[in-house]
Specification:
alpha+beta, two-stranded antiparallel sheet, 2 strands, about 40% helix
């Protein structure tokens, strides 16, 4: 996985693997091929884009004002 183009970070859990890539949707086929070569069974795949609040939090270490209130309304 470390050789995937655009790979920013990998987070592993006992039954889960999260990959942060520049083009997550465009990388799905290659990810599945790599896992298949290693005989790792794929259960489910989800693609998510970071929200503006996620980007702001990563850049500044704090949340946007009112972001929590917006999530509660959604």
């Amino acid at each position: 996985m470390r050789d995937l183009p655009g790979l920013e970070r990998v987070v592993t859990e006992p039954d889960e693997l999260a990959l942060y890539l520049e083009d997550g949707a465009g990388s799905i086929a290659e990810i599945v091929r790599l896992l298949d070569r290693e005989s790792i069974r794929v259960g489910a795949i989800a693609v998510a884009r970071p929200s503006l609040d996620d980007v702001f939090l990563r850049a500044t270490g704090r949340r946007l004002e009112g972001a929590e209130e917006e999530k509660e309304l959604a």
